[in-house]
Amino acid sequence: MPETFTSFMARALHDPQRGYYARRVQTIGAKGDFSTSATLSPQLGQSIAKWLQAESRSMPHVRHIIEVGAGNGMLMETVQKTLNWWQRRRFHWHIVDTSEGLRNQQKQRLGKRATWHTDLGSALKFIGGEAFIYHNELLDAFPVILLQWQDHEWQEVYVDLGGNQPKELLMPHALNMTERDSFSIFQQPPLTANQRAELHLSVRDWLQSWAPCWTAGSMLTVDYGDVFPALYHRRPRGTLRAYLMHQRMEGAEIYQNIGRQDITADINFTDYRSWAAVLGWQETMFSTQAEFCKLSKVSDHQTTNLLDSDGAGGAFKVVSHRKQKPA
Question: What are the strands, taking DSSP E only, across 73-209?
Fold first, then answer.
């Protein structure tokens, strides 16, 4: 029976028994399937600490810090180590993560230096709504709607795993007009015939789900992607890919090793920033990761490409939003 690609990706990554993040505890680092900026160098964690220092000066009443999707806990560990003793003790630290295996790794690394939650909305309610929030390479793991331009219209990709070989099918998408208006891809013709594009409707819905619980603070988003239409330049088949033991796979390979490989897609930051604006959040910064780390004036003598604008430093974007407490 065919299912939407969205449903397939959700099961492949997040099924509680067979999903990638339930089964593959050692996903990150040299022995895992991929490395993150946080595991390659302390630069990102040091830069986030500098960002927290600046934001806390503007909003000294905010005393809680939340990392969403904390991986193996290394990023929060670096952030805490970068702050001085008084600053670390001034804040209450929280992690939101749905993976039991990763939560165990985080607890081994951080001990009692954080409180754990499985949902951002409930975490915000628990602390009274005021928080500095940050997340790194979180949104790219949200399930996407996969579209393809076919016969002069956007059609949705469905997947049939019932036969000997996975088969993709194109069917009319079910997006209503309000949902269509949320995505920049519908605002202009495709770049090429048979163009593919990914829609992170799940990210938009996630933001809307917890936004009412957030009363004040700032949020830092770090992820790979670009603004539209630059995101799809030279990418006629879209940005969707999988990773297994640091090997990148595309096309039909995405349907192999289900539950044993990561599946990801770049973030359309034009869409993401517009959703934040609709929610009333003030955008205070948008830059590449390289620019963010350089502005924070941190340095690292290790060989990394976090500051390389032609490498990961340029491919990753950083955006900061602020939610002011009502007067």
Answer: 92-96, 115-117, 130-136, 145-150, 153-160, 167-172, 196-199
Residue showing tokens 């949320």:
182
Distance CA 209, CA 155 (A): 27
Q: What are phi and psi of 195, to 5 degrees?
A: -55, 140
- Residue length of the chain: 327
List domains and CATH numbers for the chain. 3-322 (3.40.50.12710)
d(CA 237, CA 254): 13
pLDDT at position 171, please? 97
- Our CA dihedral for 206, 208, 213, 214, rounded to 10 degrees, sits at 90
Instruction: Count, in order, helices (H) and strands (E) of the chain.
Output: 13, 16
Classify 57 as helix, strand or coil: helix
Res 303 pLDDT > 60? no
- The predicted-structure confidence for 228-266, as pLDDT tens digits, reads as follows 999 999 899 999 999 988 789 999 999 988 988 999 999
